[in-house]
Design goal:
Length: about 150
């Protein structure tokens, strides 16, 4: 897992990357438990078995979110080059069409604050730790029609 999480603080997470993280985690669980895809075992069953085997655990997506939010707070409190790059802007315009999701969008989305408010909150380390704990919790899966 440490190889997978290397430099995850710099990732911009969009829906496709989040889906890939969940799929990779499920592949690892299946391999650990010795479950083949030919067995037709659902992901929910694999998750249940892994909880029975190792107990409650934190999923990879939550770990990535925690690391990214912690890195944001750390660099905001510092005065180095990372802070300059993170808060800097690039000269020029964007391409036509819908704007791509950027690194700051994840921070705004997860914390629920505007960027200027996150900068102020990150200056207080204890307050930012509370924001990280609250914001990095894995979202609950909404049951769909097939689950009923």
């Amino acid at each position: 897992m440490s190889i997978f999480l290397y430099a995850c603080e710099s990732w911009t997470l969009n829906a496709d990357i989040e889906r890939r993280i969940r799929a990779m985690e499920m592949r690892c669980y299946r391999r650990l438990l010795g479950i083949s895809y030919k067995d037709h075992t659902t992901n929910e069953e694999v998750s249940r078995r892994i909880v029975n085997a190792i107990g409650p655990h934190v999923d990879l997506l939550t770990i990535v979110r925690q690391r990214k939010l912690k890195w944001y707070g750390h660099t905001t409190r510092s005065s180095g080059r990372a802070k300059t790059i993170m808060q800097g802007t690039v000269i020029g315009g964007r391409r036509r069409g819908r704007q791509k999701k950027c690194w700051d969008d994840n921070i705004r989305e997860w914390s629920g604050f505007e960027l200027r408010n996150t900068l102020r909150k990150a200056e207080d380390r204890e307050e930012w730790k509370a924001v990280v704990r609250r914001s990095s919790a894995a979202p609950r899966r909404i049951p769909d029609l097939w689950d009923r």
